[in-house]
Amino acid sequence: MDKIKAGVKGYLELLLFLLPVYTLVFFLQRWGVLEGLAAKAEPFMGFVGLPGEAALVIILGNFVNLYAALGAVAGLGLSSREVTILALMLLLSHNQILEGAVILRVRRGFLALAPLRFVVSVLAAHVLHPYL
Amino acid sequence: MWMKEYIEGLLSFSLRMAVVLIPLLTLLEVAKERWEGRRWRGFSWVLSPEGTVALLAGLIFGILYGAGVIIASLRQERVKGREALAVVGFLSLFHAVFEDTLLFVAAGADPLAITVPRLILAAALFVLLMYLPGRPTSSS
After folding, report:
1. How many CB atoms lie within 10 A of CB B9?
2. Is residue A57 helix, strand or coil?
3. Contact criterion met (CB < 8 Å) for A15 and B103
4. Per-residue confidence (pLDDT) for residue B38, from 0 to 100
5. Is A32 left (phi over 0), alpha (psi -120 to 50) or beta?
6. Are A102 and B63 in contact (CB under 8 A)?
7. Which residue from B137, B96, B88 is spatially nearest to B114, judged by alpha carbons?
């Protein structure tokens, strides 16, 4: 029973985090604020088969965490193919600051793995997106 | 009607996350309690018991929730720099298999397409870091 309570509490904590991001992204898109970013990001995002505004999801996922990215995915209303590409990229490379801190604590030199994750995520999406 | 769209999106999203997260976080909570002081020898052909514990902790709990176990295990004297690097390298690409994967499946992603490539890439990086000749990493 205690454990279920802990599970519900964990969910509510994450929801508290997800909802502001969902709301913010929903309105940013609605008001056309994201169009500028999307237009700038379009040529780069084409490399991984995603529309320009998906850049926001990649940025949130890498610098904040997966929950922020998921909130943005819901706010943007992306297709399931786009969600699959984003998921592939973000699962390989996310939460770089906090997870980087853990990696750093194992051995200092291991921090080089952080940029490597990002590069691998971009290359994986570039190679695989035509098949998804 | 943006209000309707906003609220519908909000509810369906919160619900999907609840279906994934509440059972999963409950199970992880239970599993974590039974985890303390475990030793595994199943991978002794390639990893030390400490390396194995770190690998499994990362796979199941993720890098953040498993951080305590991962850091403590891999900083043991017996774990060579190369082994620690290979385990962390593998985990950096592939961890929290249940939670992270299910979250995106709930959001609409294809489960196989997001799992198989990651596993292959992580395994390749593991082999590369473990067996490729190069300068040995200094310990700590």
Report:
1. 17
2. helix
3. no
4. 65
5. left
6. yes
7. B96
Which among A95, A106, A117 has CB closest to B93?
Answer: A117
Structure tokens at A113: 């793995």
Q: What is the pLDDT, as a whole number, of residue B90?
A: 97
Burial A103-121 (b: 16+ CB within 10 A, else e): beebbeebeebbeebbebb
Which chain B residues have a beta carbon less than 8 Å from that of A22? 9-10, 13
Residues in chain A: 132
For residue B64, give the nearest of A11, A99, A107 by CB distance: A99
- In whole angstroms, what is the distance from residue A15 CA to residue A3 CA? 18
Tens of pLDDT along chain A (132 residues) come to: 788 898 899 899 888 888 888 999 999 888 888 888 888 898 999 999 999 999 999 999 999 999 999 999 999 989 999 999 999 999 999 999 999 999 999 998 999 999 999 999 999 999 999 999
Which of B18, B84, B104 comes nearest A107 by C-beta?
A: B84
Q: Which of A56, A51, A88, A89 is nearest to A73 (CA)?
A: A56
| Interface predicted TM-score (ipTM) | 0.88
Tokens of B92: 């950096």
Collect all residues of chain B within an 8 Å Cβ-Cβ radius of residue A99: 63-64, 92
CA atoms within 13 A of residue B119's CA, in its CB half-sphere = 9
Distance (Å) from the alpha carbon of B45 to chain A's nearest alpha carbon: 23
Torsion of CA B90, B94, B98, B101, to 10 degrees: -170
